[in-house]
Amino acid sequence: MSLKENYRLHVYLSHSGIASRRKAESYILEGRVSVNGRKVTSLGEKVNLDDIVCFDNERVKIEEKLLYLVLNKPPLYICSSFDPQGRPLALELLPHQGMRLYNIGRLDYRSSGLILFTNDGEFASIVGHPGSGIEKEYVVESTGPIPDHVVEDFLNGIEIAGVYYKAESVLKTGKKTLRVVLIEGKNREIRKVFSHFRLHPKKLTRVRIGPVKIGDLKEGESRPLSGEELIKFRSKTW
């Protein structure tokens, strides 16, 4: 790779394990990135490998080794690189503490299950984009019985506080349990739908992301994505 090879700044950041390309763009606009000591706040800047690029005043470089991990996140962990309240980070459960990794998408603080981590911004952009069409499957246990009309309304689509929510599939597996498949997966979607019907999830676990299934991966454990899983993600076959 030539030192003189030019990269758009947000692409350079994504290849440095900072964030996806889209998130890297927002970091630039927020003024958190500098090039050769000069703060950059607009998009379109180009850099090469001999430029000094800093994020939050710390120099970053393009990662030579790309990692793709899946974690079974326990409840009460935050999907973020930092939490001002000092709550435990899901990132801290990963074995590769010496490398920059970030989560693709999120699971809320109380939820558990699968979350992907990588330092490959290109991969994160593909998998994390709302239009990617990647299914996410959840097992939900409610504190009380779930009426049948909740399943029907979630399948048909429902507007709550001006936001439209619609599940790809919903299967009632017991009086208090559902299996829900979402594609776009808006922020806290299942919890908001439950709350709308005055229901409360006792337990919410993501058991599948596209081709990746939870299997026998225990809470707090992680593993690399297999070659087959990576191929399926990139070809959108699962």
Characterise this structure:
By secondary structure, the chain is α+β, with helices and mostly antiparallel strands. The chain folds into three domains: 53 residues, Structural Genomics Hypothetical 15.5 Kd Protein In mrcA-pckA Intergenic Region, Chain A (Roll), CATH 3.10.290.10; 88 residues, Pseudouridine synthase I, catalytic domain, N-terminal subdomain (Alpha-Beta Plaits); 75 residues, Alpha-L RNA-binding motif (Alpha-Beta Plaits), CATH 3.30.70.1560. The protein is built from six helices and 17 strands. Strand 5 and strand 6 form a beta hairpin. The mean pLDDT is 91.
Give the overall pLDDT as a whole number: 91
- Strand count: 17
Distance between the termini: 34 Å
In the predicted model, the low-confidence regions spanning at least 5 consecutive residues are: none
Largest sheet: 9 strands, mixed
The fourth-level CATH homologous superfamily of the largest domain is: Pseudouridine synthase I, catalytic domain, N-terminal subdomain
Name the beta content range.
Answer: 25-35%
Q: Please tell me what the overall shape is.
A: elongated
Kindly name the structural category: alpha+beta
CATH topology of the largest domain: Alpha-Beta Plaits
